[in-house]
Every structure is written in C-alpha cells, then in structure tokens.
C-alpha cells in the first residue's frame, strides 16, 4: 500500500511540475533572486541557480532536503507555522528568516511565499528570496555605531553642541549640565542662553572673534562663563561653521570643555614664575616684561616712563642681627610700606635681596619726586621687631624713558647706577641719573676692564714717600704707594683699589706690592742704609686670605729682607672688622719680626681696648688732625703712644709751621709733602746718597 501511495504522490509531483514548467520557466531561469518551490511536506522540488548559489548546496543535495535543517533553531517553529498557514489558508506571507548555508554562514533573508494552486487545490509553496545579509550587517553596524556615539555623546565630559542659525534649533549633549549648571532642555528652549552665560567682561571679545567665522574659518578660543549657581568657570570653545552651497554659514557645531582646573594651574605657575614667594610682589621677570609693554605704549603716546630702583641701606647688619627669618619679615613689612606709597596700578617688583623696582607712567617729574619722598619717609619709620626698634632707610635711583634708554636694560641699569650714587652721597636720598653718573660709570668700566690685565702687562709701579726723623735728620723709612700707569694717565690708588677689592684682584696686587717693595728696600739697604724700613699697606681681603702669612714669609725669604725692616699698615676699621682673625694674623706676623702700624689713627673706632690686644708697634696720626691744627688731639695721641711704648709717625706734614708744632710736642718721625711727595725709586736713592740733604733742609725749619 505504501509503495502505491508513494507512486501516486510522485505522479502528482511530476504532473504539477509539468503544468508549471512553462509558466515558471522564466522566473526560475532568469530571476537574479533565489526562487524555490516546496511540496506540502516542505521538501524542495524546484529552485533556480541563484538558490543553489545562496545555500551552497548542489541540486541533488537540495532536492533531497526540506527547509527545516536550514532554518536557525530559534526561528524554526515560527517558519513552520507560517508554512502551515500558507498551505492551509492559501494566503501570501512576507517574513524575514535566518538560515545557515552549507558553509555554516548565517544568512539573513527576506522571503515572499505564496501557495501553488493546481486545479483549485494547493499543492505546494513557491517563494522568492531577497538576501538581506549585507544590508542587515550594515544596519547593525550603523546601529552599533549610533549606540556608541550616543553613549559617547551622553557620557563625554565635554559639551557637544550644534545650533542652526536659520531655525535656531539647538542641540547639546548632557555634559552641558555639568559645565554650565543648566539643563539640556533649557539650552534647547532658549537658543540665546549660551550667550547670556558668558562672563560680561569677556562677551565683547567673544562676539568680536565669532565674527571671523563668517568666512568659514573654525574658531578656537577661551573665555569665562557664569554657571547657574553663580560660579565662574573657564571654558575652551572650538566652533566649526557649516556653510550652504551659497557659501553662507547656516549652522555652528562646537565642542566646549571646562578648563577651570588648567587655568588655576596656569595661574599658580604664573605666580611662581612671575612673583616673589617671600613678599608676594611681582619679580624681576615680571617687571622686565611689563616695562616692554609700558615703553611700547609710551612710544605711541609720546610720554615718559620713570624707573625707580630702590635698595635698603644697612639691611645686611639688621639681617645679621635678626637672623634670616627676621630679615624676611622685615622685607615683607618694607614691601607693604612701599606699595602703600604708590598709586593704584603702579607696578612694583622685588628684584632680589633688598632691592625693589617701580615703574611710573603718566606722571611728571614732580609726581615722581613726591612718590619717592613718600617712600623715603615711610621706609624710615621705625620697625618694632622682637621687642626692639629697627630703623632702615632706602636709597632710590631714577632713570627716565626715553632720555636714558629706549628699552628695559639701559633703563634699569642706569636707575641702578643712580641708586648706588645716592648711597655714595650719604644714603636715604633720591638720585636722578645724569651725565656725571654716566661719566663716572664709564670711567669705572674702563678701570674694571684695565685691571684685569694691568698686572700681566706690568702697568703697576711703586712710588715711595720718605719718612724722616727730624731729630737725627735722616730718612728712617719709606711708605710704598702703588700707582697705575694707564694709557689715560697715572691713576691714584684711591680710585682703583676699591674696584680691585670688589673684583677680587687685590690679593694678587697686594702680593706684587709686597714683593716689589721688599726687593727695592733690600737694594737701598745695600746701597746706603742697612736700617731703612719700608712700609706697605694691607687690605682687609689680604688679612682674610688663607695662606697670607705663608705668602708673606715666602716673599721675605725670597728677597732676603730682614722682617724687622718690613712694616705693614692696616687701618683701624680693617683691624676691628674681624678682630679675632686679624689678631691671629698680626700676632703671627709680629712673631716673625714684622712691625705692625695702625694707619690713619684717630679716624676709626678709636677704641683703646684693641690697642692692648693687637701687637701694634706704630701709630700713624691721620693727616686730618694735622691739617686742621688739632694739636690737643695730636698731643693726646702722642702721650698715649708713649705710655704704651708705641712709635708715632705724623702723616701729612705740609708746612714748616706744622713741622715745628709737631716736633715741639714730642713727635720726631714725620712724612708729608713738606719733605717730599711720593716719588720714583731713583729719587729716593738720591736722597739716601746725599747724607747732608736733610740736615740742610731741616735747618730752614
């Protein structure tokens, strides 16, 4: 029976195929989309080449299959119901289905299926297929991208925005609420809200810059906004204009980020870079950049700019007394006093240490004088610190643009030079830069440059002034005095010794003087007088120099001069400046046999205590007392020296009357222009060889 039934079904299938063959031939053969026919059991009975290509099965394989194994399991039941509906009700069905090709590839298909009627009876299902795999993949990709973009749009910390200039439609990302404190809906409802929240002071510049976008250029700028809660924040706004075909801007797209943290960091870095940590004032870097701006404005306006350079007088001694922390507190209080003397907006800076600089513009010379006087008065008021009162003053130098320079370097330099000139004139005063200062500075610069090579080029020479005993009427010694044979003429030590000390050349120069003087004195001793001594001035730097004693001892050995005939002169101030070190050095020299003289006695500390401490042999009375005929003081010094068994030499004896008076009160050793000015060695040699010279000379006295 089963065989008969199968034969009948087979005959029906062939019959159905024969009946449809002609009508479906073109569909199956030429349709680019897959087409198929299923029998009532869902078995493939016909299909075109596109179906074979889609599924990957051969004709024989597909004819032996139903559609069931092709459908993904989760959709199989739904497809069966749809198939049943088509064959039972006879209705068309459109649906999407996913199936597996022979290769295992998952295909997404759109199927249109309808019943096959032959002789009024449904004999199967015919279907046409659209392969949606690529479009579905693209759709899914777009959906994924859209989701990702939305997630980014919703979660990014920057505010993404877009505004149509014609419709005023506005779109903003959720981050706007974090940055602005206003909701997305508020920005959508009020297209002008973005403008209303711009900080009022920044709005004109923002509007001005935005006008540049009319030509289609993107704009990147920073400005402040006022949040809904009133907080002011900094934002960075990058806006891109979108043009229509006519080249007109129709939409603005932008990204806004909160840069408040960065701005605060920049402010802190700016403060560190441009402000003094101790006083809070601007620093040297700030004031130099500021003067460039001020000069540029003054050049356009044809106005003057004044630079005030201030340096505290005697701050070092106060700082040593208070300690560094106390000195720092004093500087803080000084800076506040100075600032209160200025006009609103006048730039002031701490240049370093106890130096300050001020820029005054849109002012007259009278205005500047008044401000400078206020500063002098304010600073000079006593400071009470650590239960003590301290008085500090300041010296002020002033330069003027454009008279003294057209940029910051010469202006600050000349104000600084004027300030030092004020110190030299007595401190606590104002000094305008002038030609006298300029000439002095130029000469000092010439001396500084020349000193660096003067020793190497043997430009130094020694002159000697005789020291005469008016009782024995003979030269007992000489004082060696250095001179500089410069191209500009013979230069006095009064002019270059201090510079040599500041430049650090004094030690080398002093060593040369000692050696040269010892050699010369040794020659004179062999020529005329064995007991002749030479006196050489020592500086503070030489006393402080490590190895000075050893150096001097080596010179004595080298020149073979008996130490008894070398006298070294120091001033009272040099001896007292570092009494402990001076005492050690001088005691060592004295132990070698070198004599110690105090030069210009009576003009320094005039303390009797150090006379007993130091190994002094001779006091040289300062010429000031002799010129002013202060015989009482001279007599007291001589008496004191006699009581201490010290020798005395009167300096600066220039007249016969001075010689008589000093001789009559008991001083016999003298030097000065009445005897001889400082002269070259050969002149001294002639004095020594003429043994009766001083007898004849002194007879006139």
UniProtKB/TrEMBL annotation:
InterPro entries: Biofilm_reg_signaling, EAL_dom, EAL_sf, GGDEF_dom, Nucleotide_cyclase, PAC, PAS, PAS-assoc_C. Gene3D superfamilies: 2.10.70.100, 3.30.70.270, EAL domain, PAS domain. Residues 93-144, 219-271 form the PAC domain. It comes from the Bacteria. Residues 303-435 form the GGDEF domain. Residues 20-90 form the PAS domain. It holds the Pfam family GGDEF. Residues 444-692 form the EAL domain. SUPFAM superfamilies: EAL domain-like, Nucleotide cyclase, PYP-like sensor domain (PAS domain). This is GGDEF domain-containing protein. It comes from Paenibacillus rigui.
């Amino acid at each position: 029976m089963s065989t008969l039934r199968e034969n009948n079904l087979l005959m029906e299938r062939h019959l159905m195929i024969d009946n449809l063959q002609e009508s479906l031939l073109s569909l199956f053969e030429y349709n680019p989309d897959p087409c198929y026919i299923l029998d009532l059991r869902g078995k493939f009975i016909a299909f075109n080449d596109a179906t074979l290509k889609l599924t990957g099965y051969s004709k024989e394989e597909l004819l032996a299959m139903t559609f069931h194994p092709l459908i993904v399991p989760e959709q199989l039941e739904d497809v069966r119901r749809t198939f049943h509906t088509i064959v039972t009700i006879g209705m068309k069905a459109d649906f999407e289905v996913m199936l597996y090709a022979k290769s295992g590839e998952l295909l997404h298909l759109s199927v249109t299926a309808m019943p096959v009627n032959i002789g009024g009876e449904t004999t199967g299902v015919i279907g046409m297929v659209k392969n949606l795999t690529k479009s579905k993949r693209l759709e899914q990709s777009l959906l994924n991208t859209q989701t990702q973009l939305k997630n980014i749009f919703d979660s990014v910390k920057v505010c993404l925005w877009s505004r149509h200039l014609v419709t005023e439609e506005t779109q903003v990302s959720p981050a706007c609420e974090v940055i602005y404190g206003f909701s997305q809906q508020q920005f959508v409802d009020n297209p002008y809200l973005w403008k209303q929240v711009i900080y009022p002071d920044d709005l004109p510049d923002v509007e001005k810059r935005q006008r540049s976008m009319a030509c289609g250029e993107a704009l990147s700028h920073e400005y402040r906004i006022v949040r809904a809660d009133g907080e002011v924040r900094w934002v960075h706004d990058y806006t891109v204009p979108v043009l229509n075909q006519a080249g007109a801007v129709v939409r603005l797209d932008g990204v806004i980020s909160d840069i408040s943290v960065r701005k605060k960091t920049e402010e802190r870095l700016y403060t560190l870079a441009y402000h003094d940590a101790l006083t809070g004032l601007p620093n040297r870097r700030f004031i130099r950049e500021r003067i460039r701006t001020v000069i540029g404005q003054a050049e356009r306006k044809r106005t003057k700019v004044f630079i005030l350079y201030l340096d505290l007088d005697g701050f070092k001694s106060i700082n040593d007394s208070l300690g560094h922390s106390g000195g720092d507190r004093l500087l803080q209080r000084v800076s506040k006093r100075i600032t209160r003397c200025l006009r609103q907006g006048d730039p002031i800076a701490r240049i370093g240490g106890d130096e300050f600089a001020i820029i005054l513009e849109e002012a007259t010379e009278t205005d500047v004088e008044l401000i400078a006087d206020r500063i002098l008065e304010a600073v000079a008021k006593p400071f009470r610190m650590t239960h003590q009162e301290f008085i500090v003053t300041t010296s002020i130098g002033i330069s003027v643009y454009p008279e003294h320079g057209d940029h910051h370097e010469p202006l600050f330099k000349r104000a600084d030079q004027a300030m030092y000139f004020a110190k030299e004139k007595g401190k606590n005063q104002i000094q305008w830069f002038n030609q006298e200062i300029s000439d002095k500075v130029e000469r000092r610069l010439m001396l500084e440059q020349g000193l660096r090579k003067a020793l190497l080029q043997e430009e130094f020479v020694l002159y000697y002034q005789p020291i005469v005993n008016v009782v024995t009427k003979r030269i007992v010694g000489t004082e060696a005095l250095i001179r500089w044979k410069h191209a500009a003429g013979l230069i006095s030590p009064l002019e270059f010794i201090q510079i040599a000390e500041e430049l650090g050349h004094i030690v080398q120069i002093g060593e040369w003087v000692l050696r040269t003087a010892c050699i010369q004195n040794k020659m004179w001793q062999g020529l005329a007088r064995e007991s002749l001594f030479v006196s050489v001035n020592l500086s503070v730097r030489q006393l402080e120099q490590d190895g000075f004693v050893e150096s001097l001892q080596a010179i004595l050995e080298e020149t073979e001069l008996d130490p008894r005939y070398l006298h070294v002169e120091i001033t009272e101030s040099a001896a007292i400046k570092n009494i402990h070190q001076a005492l050690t050095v001088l005691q060592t020299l004295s132990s070698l046999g070198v004599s110690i003289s105090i030069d210009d006695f009576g003009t320094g500390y005039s303390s009797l205590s150090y006379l007993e401490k130091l190994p002094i042999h001779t006091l040289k009375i300062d010429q000031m007392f002799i010129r002013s005929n202060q015989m009482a003081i001279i007599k007291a010094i001589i008496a004191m020296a006699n009581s201490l068994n010290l020798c005395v030499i009167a300096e600066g004896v220039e007249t016969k009357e001075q010689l008589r008076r000093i001789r009559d009160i008991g001083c016999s050793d003298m030097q000065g222009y009445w005897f001889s000015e400082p002269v070259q060695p050969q002149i001294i040699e002639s004095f020594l060889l003429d043994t009766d010279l001083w007898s004849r000379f002194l007879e006139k006295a």
